[in-house]
Amino acid sequence: MSEETTVRPERTERSERPERPQYRGNGPRKRRPFQRRKVCRFCADKDLVIDYKDPRVLRSFITERGKIVPRRISGNCSKHQREITEAIKRARNIALIPIASTHVVA
Fold it and tell me: Domain-by-domain residue ranges, the chain?
């Protein structure tokens, strides 16, 4: 077998390369503005307690449709998000919080 060498074309300088378009798809790329990381309000304020008997605190973690707000939106840490979920489910079970928005009497 004879040794074959592959000849690669010489690399061009950056300035000589054709420019790539700065967009993909239909329009220019949109950059998201920097968003500040949300802080768990229960970790920040140690006096605030998660209790299933306090529906005022729990309502801020429920959407208008009665769904539990996810952690990435509420800004809670995983420990407190689990506690909030459990407290909301307990409060729903004993009818302190409505299960869905259709159960709310206006």
Answer: 36-103
Contact by Cβ (8 Å): 96, 59: no
Rounded mean pLDDT, 100-105: 67
For residues 50 and 83, the answer to whether their CB atoms sit within 8 Å is: yes
Residue with tokens 């949300």: 38
pLDDT at 1 (0 to 100): 57
Is the model's pLDDT at 42 over the cut of 90? yes
SS3 category, 14: helix
Compute the distance between CA of residue 61 and CA of residue 12 in angstroms, rounded to an integer. 57
Q: What is the pLDDT of residues 45-95, one digit of tens each?
A: 999 999 999 999 999 999 989 999 999 999 999 999 999 999 999 999 999
Buried-state track 39-74, b at ≥16 Cβ within 10 A, e below 16? ebebeeeeeeebebeeeebbeebbeeebebbebeeb
Q: Tell whether domain 36-103 is in CATH 4.10.640.10.
A: yes
Closest by alpha carbon to 68, among 59, 80, 77, 57? Answer: 59
